[in-house]
Amino acid sequence: MAERFGGRSVSLAIEASRGAVIHALVQYPWLTIYPINPVTSARYRQAFTPSGASDDLPDARVLLELARDHAAKLRPLELQDSQTLQLAGLVEARRQIVDRRTQVLNQLTSLLRSYYPQALELLGQLDTDLAVEFLSRWPDLIGLKAAKPGVIQRFYYTHNLRRPELLEQRLQFIRQAVALTTDPARVSVAVLQLHCLLDQLRALRKHVAILGREIRTVFADHPEAYLFRDLPGAGPALAPRLCVVFGTLRTLYPDPASLQKHAGVAPVREKSGQQLWTHWRWLAPVFLRQSLVEWAGQTVMHSAWAKVYYQRMVAKGKKHHAILRALAFKWIRILWKCWQTRTPYDEARYLKQLLHRKSPNALPV
């Protein structure tokens, strides 16, 4: 195509906005890529093919017509800078591994309840070095009861648990514990499953830490990091994710509403005649929406006006997740302005503005 058109600009419509194909195509500067929503192309095809017949070649012609005849209504693909793309890949990879770790922890909990529930009482949190090493050393209650109290006490000392009353309480608990089952056929299989899950947990915990260090390094060097690192409730996990949401390409979101809709926190309103209904925005990037809503939940504990807003909505009978989406909707407008003007968010200044405008979210004087 480059030889055929002499390096002139070529428009390409494709039903994708990310993935291996996009990564390959963006290397060619003469290509202008138009990501087409599959719903858009499907409805365009159905408008002229009521039967619903579909095939690759006719579907390609639909994309061709959209790019050729309706380019003014389409938005060409714009990619963020390499630092933002790298940070985006890191935070998504970390989230995936954290989700897998959570799945393994749930499986581990279920397994222990089936043959060794005392371990849950003795350990509490399973996602710790203490828990992993404890279960590796004493994978069943019979082995634990056979251990000398001094050995168990030294184990806890090694892991910085040295409160005499708590140690004595746990040793007493072990002495009085009765095994849920002593059937070797059941216990031997469960122990093998336990070691398998512990190996997975070790690997996942290791790589979560590795990705966390890499995220901190890349985020510290990001040109927009100063706008997000000190946001209320952001912290080392959510601040980089918020940075990825906005990035450095300010033409990508010309107004707050464009980001609110893209993130899926703005509901969809439909009207027909005298009927008006609102529903969930389905085709939104899940991870981006999660980042904003999860952070909004953290701001309830770290931002005074966000806490007031949350309490007001609870008093009105609104549900928790609906409140957080609405709160994320409000935060986007604030962050968008800070991002466009390159001004870090100032809680004290915003509280003064709320008081000046007599907002219901203002703090009582």
Main features:
mainly alpha, two-stranded parallel ribbon
Task: Describe what you observe in this structure.
This protein is mainly alpha-helical and 365 residues long. 62% of the residues lie in helices and 5% in strands. The strands form two sheets. Strands 1-2 form a two-stranded parallel sheet. The longest helix has 38 residues, at 184-221.
Lay out the secondary structure.
Elements: E1 10-14, H1 20-25, E2 31-35, H2 38-48, H3 56-69, H4 82-115, H5 118-123, H6 129-137, H7 141-146, H8 149-158, H9 164-176, H10 184-221, H11 235-246, H12 256-263, E3 268-272, E4 275-279, H13 286-302, H14 304-315, H15 320-341, H16 347-356
Parallel strand pairs: 1-2
Antiparallel strand pairs: 3-4
Helix pairs in contact: 4-10, 4-11, 10-11, 11-13, 12-15, 13-14, 13-15, 14-15
SSE pattern, N- to C-terminal: EHEHHHHHHHHHHHEEHHHH
Helix/sheet category: mainly alpha
Provide the gyration radius in Å. Answer: 27 Å
Report how far apart the termini are.
68 Å
